[in-house]
Specification:
- With about 230 residues, this protein is mainly α.
- It is built from five helices and six strands, in the order ββββααββααα.
- Helix 1 runs parallel beside helix 3 and helix 2 crosses helix 5.
- The longest helix is centred in the C-terminal third of the chain and has 22 residues.
- The protein is globular, with a radius of gyration of 16 Å.
Length: about 230
């Protein structure tokens, strides 16, 4: 079940992971986008997603950049979220339930969940410069050779930025709502809300069904990469 995610009372963000090859752009930050170089890749597993045949390391550069930009403590968790959400298929489309409805003037085809992190343009107000056309409709370009690809919701750099920004916003919100939890508990609470907004009820009561699916992939990837996994 996809959902609306709020970063603060004033801001709503979508919500709904190299051998660092691939990607678009050069340099960048949390506001301008672009993929910084990642000469070393602590997330590298050498594994392939069986369902799609895509390397699970395909988007490590984007994950590392945006996790750092939004001060997320465990980038490997986003690889696991991407597995659960899309099996690393950057052209994935889902959410026939239209979690944020169909905005005025949009079509139903513009109102679902898209890309590797299954973000929802209809829920998003991260920035109307990120993923949107000049007319306010979502940019859903799927041709990676087209000029519109650079700012498409399907472009993994845009998609992962929005997804990680949403988790970071969830984290800030649950830290305010439920003081005194551990950092790892806040991660579980935030990603539980990523799947179903409002599912977190306390430091220990959150969306365990979704979180457990993410953690199964997380532990596999951490083992394969020799990554220092958190003890969630």
């Amino acid at each position: 079940m996809k959902r609306e995610v709020r970063i603060s009372a004033a801001t709503t963000v979508v919500i709904l992971l190299c051998g660092c090859g691939g990607g678009n752009g050069n340099g960048g930050d949390a506001s301008s986008g672009g993929i910084k170089s990642c000469d070393t890749d602590p997330l590298r597993t050498g594994l392939v997603a069986q369902q799609t045949g895509v390397s699970v390391d395909a988007f490590d550069c984007q994950v590392l950049q945006w996790a750092a930009a939004y001060n997320e403590p465990d980038p490997m968790i986003f690889k696991a979220i991407i597995y659960v959400e899309s099996r690393f298929d950057e052209k994935a489309v889902a959410c026939p339930n239209l979690p944020c409805g169909t905005p005025s003037g949009w079509t139903t085809a513009e109102s679902g969940c898209y890309g590797v992190m299954q973000v929802v343009p209809a829920c998003s107000s991260l920035s109307k410069n990120v993923g949107f056309l000049a007319n306010g409709h979502p940019n859903l370009t799927t041709d990676s050779s087209a000029s519109g690809w650079a700012n498409s919701f399907f472009n993994p750099d845009i998609n992962i930025q929005i997804g990680i920004a949403g988790v970071a916003g969830n984290r800030a919100q649950v830290e305010q709502q439920f003081p005194g939890c551990s950092a790892d508990q806040y991660t579980m609470m935030a990603i539980g809300n990523y799947n179903s907004y409002g599912s977190t009820k306390s430091c220990t009561v959150y969306n365990t069904d979704y979180d457990n699916a993410v953690l199964a992939a997380y532990r596999q990837y951490a083992t394969a990469a020799g990554y220092p996994a958190h003890a969630y």
